[in-house]
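User: Quick sanity check before I run a bigger batch. Here is a single chain. Can you write out its predicted 3D structure?
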Amino acid sequence: MSEAGTLETASTHDLTARTPGARLFSLFGSSFAVGIILPLVTAIAYEGAFRAGLVQGRLLPPPSKILATLWELARSGELLTHVIATLARVLAGFGLGALIGMWLGALTGASRAARRLLDPTLQALRAIPSLAWVPLFILWLGIFESSKVALIAVGVFFPVYLGVMAAIANVDRKIVEVGRAFRLSRLSLVRRVLLPAILPDFIIAIRSGLGLGFMFVVAAEIMGASEGLGYLLVDGQQLGKPAQILAAIIAFAVLGKLGDWLIVIGARPFLSWQDSHSRTQ
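Assistant: Done. Predicted structure follows.
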């Protein structure tokens, strides 16, 4: 065997011998390294402009001051307290909204009668602004955790519902007929045909729902909370601390991106059968 062939075989063996954890770390590391270029360059450019006296930085503090604020919040333990409070609300609201959205989406997607009965009302409710629910939930549930979780669940519900309903309703009729031609049982048809067909759209719906969950938690915490990243935003606004506001926004961005990344990585094994264009790039 030639030297080039030996090297190629060794390289292939090395890639296949990697543990799943190593492959996951390599994937995350490369994606993170590329994805951080734009915010890092922007931060460095603004820091340079601030130090050169081109910008004042009073209302938009330089990255060094924002990082110092984040470090102080982390050192004192406040950041962890607020992050845990926000994550607990998001996870509770996301779980509730996603479950209801999946159930109603599956019902309306699979049944034309249910879609005609329920979908017009749900579409009308979807058009209601998020803050319009706040006084009603406060009246019904008070200003404590229940109203906050309910508001987040509303934000999560609609993208999950729409995604699941559209995915099921738009399954190609021909692949269902092929499954029936092979005399698959109803359970096998769902497992081997319908679930793979709707899974890509379902994952997108879940990602959209989680993103809106983080958006709605801000409204939920602004309407009355003593803990949470939303509380940090309000506290920074009332006390005139733009660095604290931006620190809370960065924390929201990091948590949201991490949650989205976990969904993508968790779904990857179930979508390995896809031969999409993006996989070849």
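DSSP finds twelve helices and no strands in the chain.

User: Great, the batch can go ahead then.
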